[in-house]
Design a protein that fits this description.
This is Nuclease. By secondary structure, the chain is α+β, with helices and mostly antiparallel strands. It contains 7 helices and 12 strands. The chain has a domain of 129 residues: OB fold (Dihydrolipoamide Acetyltransferase, E2P), CATH 2.40.50.90. Helix content is 30%, strand content 19%. It is globular.
C-alpha cells in the first residue's frame, strides 16, 4: 500500500476511539421534504458525501462531489509479490471515516441547494469554518461531479490531490456512477473480488494508475 494511503489508515485507526460524528442509526426513517434554505444541527455521517440531520429528519448530500459508496473497494496498483490479486482498499469506509473525523463534535450548517419541496437535498455544508466537500477533495477521498466543475477553488484543490496522488488518486477504482449502475451486491459484506470483476469490464478510467498501466511492459518476468 502506498505511504499516503497507509498514513490515512493509521490516522483514522488511531482516531477511532475519539468522539466524532455518529453513524446513521439503523432503521432511520425516510427523509422528509425540505422546506428550509439553511439547516444547522448535529449530524450522523451516512457515507463520504451524505449527512443525516436526525433532529430534522433530513438527508443532505454534499453538493458538487462524489465518493465511493460504503461497500465499494479500490485497489493499490503497487507491486504485490504475495498475491496474484491487487491489494484492496476500502475506499467507501475510508471516505466515511474521514468525514466523521473532520466534523468531530461540531454542529454542521448546510446551505441547501435543492428547491423547497424536494425530497432529496444537497447543500454546501460546513463544520465551523471547514467546507466539508472541499476537505474531502483535499485529501483525495472524493471527486468533483461533472455538474460542479465551475468552482475554481474546488477545481484547483482536486488538481493538487490528483497530482500528489492522495487517496483514491493513488488507486485503481471504478467510477462511482458506473459502480452504482453495475454492482449487484451492495451490502456491507461485499468482497473485493466483486470489484476486481467490475474493473475488468470498466468503461471509464478515472485515476492516474490506469494511465500508468498502459505504459507497463507486456511482461515483467525478465
Amino acid at each position: 500500500m502506498s505511504r499516503r494511503l497507509a498514513l490515512v489508515l493509521s490516522v483514522l485507526i488511531c482516531g477511532s476511539d475519539r468522539g466524532v460524528a455518529a453513524d446513521l442509526p439503523t432503521g432511520s426513517a425516510q427523509s422528509r421534504k425540505v422546506s428550509l434554505s439553511n439547516i444547522t444541527g448535529r449530524v450522523a455521517v451516512v457515507d463520504g458525501r451524505t449527512l443525516w440531520f436526525a433532529g430534522r429528519r433530513i438527508l443532505v448530500t454534499l453538493n458538487g462531489i462524489d465518493s465511493c459508496d460504503l461497500p465499494q473497494w479500490a485497489f493499490d496498483p503497487g507491486p504485490n509479490d504475495n498475491s496474484s490479486f491487487l491489494r484492496p482498499i476500502p475506499c467507501g469506509a475510508l471516505a466515511k471515516a474521514w468525514l466523521k473525523r473532520s466534523i468531530g463534535h461540531r454542529a454542521v450548517t448546510c446551505q441547501l441547494m435543492t428547491s423547497p419541496g424536494s425530497i432529496a437535498a444537497s447543500g454546501i455544508c460546513q463544520a465551523g469554518n471547514m467546507d466539508l466537500a472541499h476537505e474531502m477533495l483535499r485529501v483525495g477521498l472524493a471527486r468533483l461531479t461533472t455538474a460542479f466543475r465551475s468552482n475554481p477553488r474546488y477545481i484547483a484543490t482536486q488538481r493538487r490531490a490528483v497530482g500528489a496522488r492522495y487517496g483514491i488518486w493513488a488507486s485503481s477504482v471504478l467510477d462511482m456512477a458506473e459502480w452504482r449502475q453495475k454492482a449487484v451486491d451492495k451490502t456491507l459484506g461485499r468482497k473485493p473480488l466483486a470489484d476486481i470483476n467490475l474493473l475488468a469490464e470498466r468503461q471509464n478510467e478515472i485515476t492516474p494508475p490506469f494511465a500508468d498501466a498502459h505504459h507497463y511492459p507486456t511482461r515483467r518476468d525478465r
